[in-house]
Amino acid sequence: MSFRHSIALHLLTVIFGFYFLVAVIVTVVQLYKEYENTKESFYQEIQLLPTTFGQGISDSVWTYNQELLQSILRGVYNSPIVVGIEVKSLDHKMDYKIGSILDKDSHPAYFDTDGKPGKSAETGLGADALFGYTFPITYQGPAFKDPQPLGEVTIYSNERLVFERVKYGFFLILINSVIKTLALWFIIFYFIKRYLGNPLNEFTRKIKQQDSNQPHPITLDIPWSDNNEILLLKDSYNQMILSVNEYQAALKTLNKELDDKVRERTHELFAAKEAAEMLAYTDVLTDVKTRRAFFELAEQELKNAVRQQTAASIIMIDIDHFKNINDTYGHATGDLVLQTFAKTLKNSCRACDLIGRLGGEEFAILLPQTDLNGALHVAEKLRLSVADSKLTHNRQTLHFTASFGVAETAPGQYMLEEILLQADQALYTAKNQGRNQAVAYKQSTTENT
Ligand SMILES: Nc1nc2c(ncn2[C@@H]2O[C@H](COP(=O)(O)OP(=O)(O)OP(=O)(O)O)[C@@H](O)[C@H]2O)c(=O)[nH]1
Predict the structure, then answer these.
(1) Where is coiled-coil annotated (predicted)?
(2) What's the rounded Cα separation, in Å, for the pair 42 and 132?
């Protein structure tokens, strides 16, 4: 923290701003008082002069002795606190003025030691600010019972002489004030810095050094032990840090739990997605491919056949008189027949053959790398297997057969719908020819095996 921005300097600027104002006012009052006291003592000193010179002045006025009066007045004028004297006799014959006096209009006027108008010897601050003491002069002779009034004498002094005398005192007061102010400034600055500035600096430095991920409570090297505001601030900060750490720890635990939950949920969703895909691709009853899956996968297989320039065949299969089975033994038994039938197909086919249930009791098998003869051979084998299969229901043995229509891809003809249609036409022929047989598709005619 730079000195210019320190709290100590800011506080001192405010404190000493006010202190300076108060100090100036107090010093001015003090100086004014000193000035007044000095002026008062001047006045008292002037009042003492008549006891020394009063008799001589009275005598010289009574005897009209101008020389004597002048020499007495010059003697008074030489006094360091006198700047002027005016003698006013009642008959005006012995009027006399020396130095600076106030005329009848209270304006300063100047006279030399011979009583002639001249220039003021007094210059500087308050030289024209005259103040005087007037006392009567009387004659007390043996011929008179009461003192005879002769006139009055005014002795003048001025403010400049008062200032001259208090100047030294002023100077001392000023020096005293400056030294006291400076000493006080340094003392207060030192203690504010020691008890306030330094602890706050240390506090700030330690907060800045904190690890924001895991802040720790801090300690402060404070030169007092009572619970002052800085210690309370530090305690509150430490309390806050403890709470923050607790919250962070709780948050970490929550985050971990949340992570675990999200991972678990993602796993479940993934499994559910796989299950849903399986469901969409696998027929629930017979465990062979669904119609949609069969078409998608068969398209892929046909594309492969095109790329590899190999043959591929399709067998369309339909269980014979399945409606009768349903009607005779019930729908549940019909389902069992479908399952047994599908199982038979699976057992008799290669792993690469694609078996799908296209709907109801209608199935299709795609045989990769198999020409029409091969497919017809497979169909025949399947037909025999189906015819051999049996199902026991209510202690009755149930037999069923199926009809097969076979078609193969023609060179350059790999349209799935087209081949399916051809296989379906062959199947239709097989049905028409009495069922339980496999028929291959021929362009215009169909051939019975
Ligand atoms: N149990 C059962 N029956 C089904 C299912 N799907 C379709 N069926 C029935 O299968 C029967 C098909 O009958 P048809 O299309 O007349 O054919 P068919 O009786 O086999 O006669 P042909 O094909 O001419 O030999 C209908 O009665 C459908 O209700 C199924 O998932 N389970």
Answers:
(1) 237-264
(2) 10
